[in-house]
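SAMPLE LOG
Freezer: B-3
Tube label: C17
Construct: single chain, 124 aa
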Amino acid sequence: QVQLVESGGGLVQPGGSLRLSCAASGSIFKINVMGWYRQAPGKERDLVAIITSGGSTNYADSVKGRFTISSDNAKNTNMVYLQMNSLKPEDTAVYYCLWKGYTYYSISTLSVYWGQGTQVTVSS
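STRUCTURE (predicted):
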């Protein structure tokens, strides 16, 4: 009911930058939160950054000052971006886009959707 398409991952050297994008489409009635989580091999999926429909943001301590989340929710456009600067090898992970909100199929029930993930590798 909600499709998330991520892009922008890849291989970058330490200290470099990448920008992730996530486009949400489908039967979207209202967006509450969009954001990014990441999962490194052998580890749990952890919060990177989220942004609410009102523009409030929350970041993991490990990325504060280096990553910036933003969104574009103009009519018919539901995008979330993650600008990642000063990347470190420990940022290597699969990054997943998160969507929380309400769909036309379930206006009274909060729905959660995940993207398919995009690989970010930080290595020299």
